[in-house]
User: Which sequence fits this backbone?
């Protein structure tokens, strides 16, 4: 029974084109060479997938940080307006 590299190195659209081409090229090799390269290819695919997931998490975190910053700036400006308004009322009373 001949195993394919695809058992761990699933070729999908999320993978870079170069990596997909590499997996396909290795799949076309004779079994002895393909079996020798399988662990290395699997590790490369896993690392690529992990890096992609980490990059997505970082991008989501940055997006959330940007949104949080906008809310904080809005809140700061509102607080300053309230302070200025109250300060003006205090100055009028003097």
Assistant:
């Amino acid at each position: 029974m001949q195993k394919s590299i695809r058992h761990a190195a699933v070729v999908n659209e999320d993978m870079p084109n170069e990596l997909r081409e590499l997996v396909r090229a290795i799949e076309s090799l004779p079994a002895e060479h393909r079996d020798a390269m399988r662990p290395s290819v699997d590790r490369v695919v896993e690392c690529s997938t992990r890096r992609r997931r980490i990059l997505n998490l970082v991008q989501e975190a940055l997006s959330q940080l940007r949104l949080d910053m906008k809310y904080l700036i809005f809140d700061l400006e509102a607080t300053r307006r309230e302070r200025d308004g109250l300060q003006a009322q205090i100055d009028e009373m003097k």
Summary: Confidence is low (pLDDT under 50) at residues 1-9.
